[in-house]
Amino acid sequence: xxxxxxxxxxxxxxxxxxxxxxxxxxxxxxxxxxxxxxxxxxxxxxxxxxxxxxxxxxxxxxxxxxxxxxxxxxxxxxxxxxxxxxxxxxxxxxxxxxxxxxxxxxxxxxxxxxxxxxxxxxx
Length: 123
Hints:
Helix content: 25-40%
Radius of gyration: 13 Å
Shape: globular
């Protein structure tokens, strides 16, 4: 698939940005502190800054409504499916590894305080 890019990340809290593909973390929301007081660090992104902000805002809302990580991930995924078409995938947690294929301009990996959020579109 020529539109897809492969991404390998490990969602450990001490993880540093990957440099094997030559990308630097997006500066759109790097180390930003949104009005809610939550610290946001974009670790890696292939997504427009406006959509990155939407992903962070959706995650903040999801964490306010849900306490279980699976429910937070479901909330984010369903919101992005509704707003941006299917099929989005979302992983939320403190420690995970992943290797995913995503559509171009549809990938973001960020921390919201101490929780990692991986959101991407595929399929």
